[in-house]
Amino acid sequence: MRVFSKKSNFPFMIFPGTVLAAVYFFALLPLLGKNRLLGLDESIYANIVLSEVRDNHWWPLMFQGQPFWDKPPLLFWLQGLMVKLLGVDEFLLRIWSALAGAFCVYFVTRLGTVLGKSFWAGLGCGLILILQEHFILYSRVATLDMSLLSCLLGAWWHLTKAFNSSEEKGANRQILYAGLWFMTAVAVKSWSGFILFPALLLALVFCKPWIFSPKQVFARLFLPPILLMAIWVTCNILTFGESYLKWAWGFDIVGRANGGSLGSLFQTEYHWLFYGILIQQGMAFFWPFLPLCLFLWVREGWRQSSRHYFDVTSIIGSSFFFYYLLFILVFIATFINYILPLVPVAVLSAAFLFRFADDRRVALAAGLAALLGLLNGFTGDEYLRWILSGSFIICLLLAFPSSWGFRKEWMAALLAVWFLGCGYKTGEYWCNPPDPNRVWVLSVMTHPAIYPGEPLYFVGEETDARVLEFYSSYKIYTLSQIPAKQPDGALLFAYDKKVVYLPMVLKKP
Predict the structure, then answer these.
(1) Average pLDDT per run of 10 along the chain, which is 509 residues long?
(2) Spatial CA neighbour of 327 closest among 264, 271, 269
(3) Which of 65, 112, 131, 474 has the fewest CB atoms within 10 Å, measured from its CB?
(4) For the whole model, what pTM was predicted?
């Protein structure tokens, strides 16, 4: 069966996005174990997996001797099974994120083809995605974020297919697939699996008439994730009782809300500064395109509304981008992983450059954005303000007469140069991933524990200390500064830019 119709002029037997996703996955594999575990979530999840394998804590999950009920066990069980069968290695923990990243590339290519109305739009979006350093980072760290993202994109794609289906039976089947993807998202990361639901509700409200019944929508799309979430909460209540309820209310709801920036807006402590730095570091070549791409997306949505026609793929993507951005900027605390769901949606906005490439003004603006992206990617923060201003100014070119601008061939040439420059710069990051804990891990592996549970006092961050427990048999204790005398155990610290390891002093009998 051919993937594209005759009108597409690309009658491939295999969708090229499948090939791109496979290439991305197999290119990641040799690099998954090149750097040591990172801090934050990866070190937490790695220690939970170790407790499964070494102490048989498969349920309930345990972290540092305490029950871990923050996230469901699905991905931890898969990681623990790999480690149980093949041994302790960061490669085995990260392979699931790499696989999820490949799924994301496939779904983005599919959705980009729909939004851009061409094969080249989808392929371009897929290529742009695999060149973003923030996306590459989470494709090769053992966290839950990339798996969650792949499930959300999968639900988005199948709901798109449901609305584009010509028969009710096929549409109901696609809605069920979307519901199963949502259920898997909840099984991966609990409440976070519902972040796409407001966008789905908007799509269901505006994109009418349906060829499926509201009853089928509830039973197939919404009921599976809601039912799984209810089972997960009920199991925790039955297992842990009042302690879980206090945690769920005190930390998971009230604590996260209080940690947001809503109360600090008047002190100018804006979270957008934090996320702006992340975008500059992880999407340096691409973000100068965003004002133009998002403007084209919003303009197309406005035109559709004037014709009383709404595209489900466009509504889901554009609404999710803006309400989720508002959510992370105002209501919750800043974390590096919160920006990840925005990356593929931002990349999909580039599909509108291909969609309107015949408009000379768009071609000219896209070419200038490509030059700004290259300048920003190779110069860092040196011209940041000028590039930011320029990325908004080029949107004004769309107000010029339609005869002004470039032919689309010139735009294609400049975009090709942009791809080459971005690929060259990203290749350095691809081959040399961040490895801040390498020296600490090398020290504990060079000086292994005398016996399991030997105390080691580490002067540094607690997140780095959790990493050391994965690579050694030490019981790690964190210190904020070098002690005046050596404690009762080994000591590890940095002095004069050198790592110093002092072994435990054995007491004389």
Answers:
(1) 41 81 94 85 90 88 85 92 89 94 97 93 95 94 94 95 84 92 94 90 83 85 94 88 76 56 49 81 94 94 83 91 84 80 96 94 95 94 92 93 86 94 91 88 91 90 87 90 87 87 71
(2) 271
(3) 65
(4) 0.91
